[in-house]
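User: Fold both of these, please.

Assistant: Here is the first one.
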Amino acid sequence: MPRAGSTLLQSILNLNPEIYAGVTDGSLELLFGARGNFSNSPEFKAQDAELMKRAFSGFCLEGLTGYCNALIEGTGKKNVVLKSRGWGINRGFIETFYPNPKIICCVRSLKDIVSSYEKIYRNNQHLHDPVKDDSAARGTTTPKRVDEWIHPQNTIGRALERIFEIINQKYDDKILFVKYEDLCLRPESEMVRIYDYLELPYYSHDFDNIEQTVVEDDSAYNMGEGLHIIRPKLEMKYSDADHILGNNINKWLFDTYQWYYNKFGYKK
């Protein structure tokens, strides 16, 4: 989910001298590009289908391995954690060449995610936000902006749809879901859980002094400034979603996406 602590988690992991964890990564897009060419190029279609399938799987595995090895050589680390919102929903594709991938999915109370988007919008009035179009009366009120962000073609809605499909396909038990609230309130126990899932030795982190070594250029996302800035001390901030969004919007979110609230144990 967006605004659910993935930059925070990557920053914590990246402070481990044996883990490279960076910003949003594009290696999955390289695999998509290769899959598109493999599916559509006559050079592959004209050959033995089963042999070409094996060859393509080898290409993907060695390509991703080479990508990660270059990151390891360039950073002196031993392990790589690649950040992308697409890994979970594409687990079936990944498993065709990489058995049992380790996928972590960060989640957060939905009303706090939406509230965070609204606060970013309000705090960046000096910049044009594509969610708002006065001529079309689109995104001109808080409820309208929520409708835009929650649409499946936008980031929040797309993430919700993907998690719903992961649950529907019944492989959610293979993915480690990390609640932002738990990471803030019980960081050590959550990090122990994460290291256990990754099958890596636990590294003792200082949660009062988290250096931001993962820096992302926010201008790429056309949402304003300060999207990926983390605080040096890990602590839970008071939720102001009721104040920012109002009771009607929060009730609508709860009623519409009750499966999400139930899955992760969130309250209205």
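And the second sequence with its predicted structure:
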Amino acid sequence: MPQRIVPLVFLALFLAACSGGSSPTEPEDSQEPDANLFLVVSLSDALSLPQDLTGVDVVLSPQAPGPDITAPLSIEGDRASGPVGYLDPGGHSLTINIRHGIPVLVRGAATHTVTEGVRDTLIVSELDLDHPFPELPRRILFVGNSLTSYNGGLGANMAGFAGETGPELAVYTFQQAPGGSTLERHWTDHDLSTRDIVADGVYDSVVLQGSPSNMVNESASYRTYAPLFIDLINGQGMQPALYIPPSYEDHPQYASHLVELCEDVTAGHPAVLIPINQTWYHVLENRPAIPLFHTDGTHPSVHGTYLNMCVIYAALFQMNPTGCTFEYDADISAANREYLQEAAWIVTSAYLGRED
């Protein structure tokens, strides 16, 4: 009998030492040894929103020169909490990101001054509920040609699509897409005024669609003018996005070249890559009965345009378009609509590293 009692005593002492008297109601006692700030965020107000809360993180920026620190918090009931690491003494600004999937749903802000040798608990309760989804675009400009304007146009339909998907965002769109236009023409033809429209800086995102034939046969032109537009857009504080087009139906051998060209262009010029090309070939391989090309073999069919909307939504809004009820065209069956939505998310989230 004594041989059994001794190990149990040691086990009880070990468990008591590990617990340290911590409890969910005393977060300051559960701090990690290398953390001098414990953060508690009240989620009571955010829980009143119709969207689910899927994650909370905090970004700490020191007032003195130094790198930002990003720390995840754990959600438990109506609060998120956790240690945020060891901070150098001095003032820090905190940005609290409460997420719905990948995007930020609402934000909170706070400041804190770290004192040498002191471990603090900071409680944040005020969130900016008046500006949900602060990072998602509300105004989108489409620059391209007939691939953008076909079947009613992406610019005309993306607002309706976004308005009936996910958080049902109110989005304003505009398109500058005369037939046959290349990005070089958009940049150099003053009658189009595309550069002036972009330079006004009134949009959140600008989607640039190049001409596949120009991109294949005159790739130097695309390599010159796509970066010029990207830099102009970035300089105006907007988000550039590069539409990766599929090759024409009779020339699938150029598909990989179009992807590589867009990736090369954005290597030194940051922009969101919209993998329309890759999604089309995913669908063509797995559901060849769905006609993505118009009968001319160059323009999209109504299915192709609808798929483009799904991919653009997945890339710009970082959310799954599956379940969207937007009635785009009666020729698209419910089954095909659902498949195209799913395919857009599968390919886009994997390509951009946004699997949720």
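The longest strand covers residues 104-114.
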